C-alpha cells in the first residue's frame, strides 16, 4: 500500500510541472476533488490498515477482555518470527522423541542400575516398579535424546516432574 501511494505521489509530482498555475482557491477548497478529476484516487492508508482484535469472555460472561493489535509491517514480522520458532521447537521435539529407541531405554535403565534417579526406589526393592526414561531438559525446551540428558525415573517421580513443568 505504501509503495502504491508513493507511486501515485510521484505521478502527481510529475504532472504538477505540466499543470501550470492552478488557482489557489482550487487547491485550498478542493484539492482531493481536483486530483480526482485528473484521475488520481485519494488513498487513505488508515482505512486500509488491518487490525486483529483478540476478545475473551469468561464462561459466566462476567469477565470480558479484549485488545487490538494493528497489523503493521512490524507486527506481522514479529508474528512470523514467533510462529517460525514454534514450528521449529515442535519439529525438534518430535525428532527427539523418535530418537528414543527401545534399545536406548534399556541402556539408560541398566546404566542407572534400575534405580529411580530422584527417589532412589528400584526394581531390586520393588520388583513391579515401573521405570521410565526422562529427558532431564525436556525436548520441548531444547533437550536432546542423548545419554547425558536422559535419566531413569520411577513413574511417580516422572508424573510429579511433568506436572511441575506444566504449571
Ligand atoms: Zn522415584
Note poorly predicted spans.
Answer: none
Sheet of most strands = 2 strands, antiparallel
State the end-to-end CA separation.
Answer: 44 Å
Order of helices and strands: HHHEEHHEEH
Strand arrangement, major sheet: 1-2
Give the domain tally.
3
Quickly give the structural class.
alpha+beta
Shape, per Cα inertia axes: elongated
What are the bound molecules? zinc ion
Verbal overview:
The chain is of the alpha+beta class and 167 residues long. It has three domains: 2-47, no CATH class; 49-93, no CATH class; 99-166. 50% of the residues lie in helices and 14% in strands. It has six helices and four strands. Strands 1-2 form a two-stranded antiparallel ribbon. Strands 3-4 form a two-stranded antiparallel ribbon. The radius of gyration is 32 Å and the shape is elongated. 6% of the residues are buried. The model has no long low-confidence stretch (mean pLDDT 86). It binds zinc ion. Zinc ion binds next to strand 4 and helix 6.
Question: Main traits of this protein?
Answer:
167 residues; elongated; binds zinc ion
Topology (elements, then pairings):
Blueprint: H1 2-19, H2 24-37, H3 45-48, E1 51-57, E2 64-70, H4 73-98, H5 102-111, E3 131-135, E4 150-154, H6 155-166
Antiparallel strand pairs: 1-2, 3-4
Summarize the structure.
With 167 residues, the chain is an alpha+beta fold. It is built from six helices and four strands, in the order αααββααββα. The protein is 50% helix and 14% strand.
Amino acid at each position: 500500500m505504501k509503495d502504491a501511494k508513493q507511486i501515485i505521489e510521484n505521478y502527481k509530482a510529475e504532472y504538477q510541472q505540466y499543470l501550470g498555475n492552478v488557482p489557489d482557491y482550487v487547491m485550498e477548497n478542493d484539492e482531493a476533488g481536483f486530483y480526482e478529476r485528473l484521475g488520481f484516487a485519494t488513498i487513505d492508508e488508515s482505512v486500509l490498515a488491518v487490525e486483529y482484535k483478540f476478545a475473551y469472555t469468561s464462561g459466566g460472561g462476567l469477565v470480558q477482555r479484549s485488545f487490538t493489535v494493528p497489523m503493521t509491517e512490524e507486527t506481522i514480522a514479529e508474528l512470523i518470527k514467533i510462529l517460525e520458532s514454534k514450528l521449529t521447537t515442535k519439529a525438534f521435539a518430535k525428532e527427539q522423541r523418535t530418537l528414543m529407541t527401545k534399545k536406548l531405554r534399556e541402556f539408560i535403565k541398566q546404566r542407572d542400575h534400575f534405580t529411580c534417579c530422584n527417589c532412589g526406589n528400584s526394581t531390586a526393592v520393588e520388583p513391579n516398579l515401573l521405570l521410565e526414561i526422562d529427558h532431564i531438559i525436556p525436548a520441548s525446551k531444547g533437550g536432546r535424546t542423548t545419554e547425558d540428558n536422559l535419566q531413569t525415573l520411577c513413574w511417580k517421580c516422572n508424573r510429579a516432574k511433568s506436572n511441575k513443568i506444566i504449571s
